[in-house]
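agent> Task received from the user: take the single chain below, predict its 3D structure, and emit structure tokens. No templates, no multimer pairing.
agent> Plan: (1) validate residues, (2) run structure prediction, (3) serialize to tokens, (4) report one or two observations.
agent> Step 1 OK, no nonstandard residues flagged.
tool_call: predict_structure(input=
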Amino acid sequence: MFAALDSVAAHVEISFPVEVPSPVACTLFAVWLGVAAEMVHDDVGGSVSHVISGVGHRHDQAWHTDSTPWLLPNRYTLLGSLKGQDATTMPTGVLPLRFLQDALMFDQEALAALRGEALPWRVNFPDLPQLWSAILDPVVPRWVLPAVEPLVDRMSSALARGVEHIQAVLAADELEWYGPATSDGRLVMFDNHRVLHRGPSLERDCGRELLRVKVGGKAVV
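)
tool_result: status=success, residues=221
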């Protein structure tokens, strides 16, 4: 679809005329990508969200993938600025999963478990059928620490070790990552199947607000 999304970085910054409001540009672009009205929903995370930095889930400021309890997590995440966005001090962090997996090559047994040992991703949604998938599934990876951490006692020793490795590598913050930022006249889109992402560490009163649209995937059936 986009040459930039076929590269290692797996994200792209999209420019549009500054006189066009960001929500309008974000919505039109999402529709162009194929988000039909019937695909917009509120189930387990929702496909359209108003994101206020510093409010709600603080794990959004740590590395994660979107929509881990979805049957099929969204392929792309599209971000547009609503207000308070400074393109130089408030970027979204984007970390290609390739970089993370390269950093885990020293323990092949743990890496194999991360790629092949399934975990339940709907523990917090008891009314939904359980969903099992591996953290570094080769097709659709999933990672959000609050969903993984309570399951450590159920894991094989190799997988538990792999989770520890991921935590250590991410905590060290030594891997190369990118910092695209939304602003007037600029959207950000990344491939949710190929990167981890995080919001900047900001307080509630910073004024940063985004429109987030998840493109593709299926929440529940």
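agent> Step 4: summary for the user.
The beta strands are 11-15, 48-52, 76-83, 93-96, 118-120, 132-134, 186-191, 195-198, 209-215.
agent> Done.
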